[in-house]
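Hi U.,

Before I forget, here's the chain from the pilot set. I'm dumping it here mostly so it's searchable later in email.
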Amino acid sequence: MKITSYTGGFTQTNGYLVETPAGNFLIDAPEGIADWIQEKGVRVDDVLLTHQHYDHVMDAAALGAMGARLHAFALYSQELTLESAARAWGMPISVDPYAIDSLLDLSQPLRLAALEISMAHVPGHATDSVTFYVPAEGVVFSGDTVFAGSIGRTDLPGGSTQQLLDGIARHLLILPPATRVLSGHGPATTIGREVDSNPYLA
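Structure:
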């Protein structure tokens, strides 16, 4: 499994291209990632959305138009993308509407591109936040739940600091310390490093 990161949009959001001999998929759809994929000449069949805040789905419609299947915890809505809230804030956020092709069934691992991916619902930053853990590769895609030295903001609609911290403890901190954490913003880290030094997880 080869993982290549992409960062785009004014919030500097990370997306990840996962390539395997059995197929390729993306984690999240930040602005510009569709053009990046085309420039690389890589075919992507699936996109796993960690959550649907606007900065993670700006290119979701473009990827869908390219033939990729979109997978998420919930169906698209302007509440999830924060477009509805942004209008009240006077912010001109606009996301091209897209269709979710498959709702994630968190009761069992997802099998994609010959990989087994364990999923967990970790709300608190966003109501639909999901993490994707690939045990065989020792990597978890954490979205905006936990970052290197920080956690996701909880002052957005549906946010809850306690809910987020509880979810991180229940689903992420139990992973092996060497597990790589690839998050929605910022650099990579490990579970062990965050347990030892993240001030929000003390």
